[in-house]
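Structure representation:
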Amino acid sequence: NSIDKLISFLNEETKGYKVIIAGYSSAAYLTTILSMKLDNVVRSIAFGPIFDITQFIDKNGKYWKNIQRDFLEFKDTSKKKYFDITHLIKTKKPRSFLYFYANGYYLDKEQHNLLIKSNIILDGVGIDSTTHCGIFNKKINIFLLTCSEKKFVAFKNKFAGKTNVKEKEVLNFINIKLNLFFKCLELRLCKL
């Protein structure tokens, strides 16, 4: 029933394994935390992550009031330490971390700007979208989760830091990489 217990459990369960994690929205928030706290993380990808959930406590409206009620019920300060994770990111950067945000969606942009205001530099990709998380293409997600470290670094080098990336640009890049992969595979099969 706490993030610290989850971290302890996952560290025990993943001993000896390389861990790749990804998440959307609030799961991206957890992805960010786990990328800093788990021992064996080799890649972490966050789509529309939340870095500070305290901002939701002060909002109006039924949805926000439910969130406010839930957060304020935490009497245990050890649980509250994860409400704003920017201080964690400043002390320990997430490992092999890449995050996406929709440059036209207020919440994504707000969270991205929070990092900038906090002088936190992470590999972020601003997707030209008004939809939360910016990018939901399965082909892109599968590529990012399964590609080699070399291809992942090439992807980060191509797109990280850009603030207005079109989904088509990403798909073109991935298709080039996948086409090269299949050509190499064909050559290997022909040699057999």
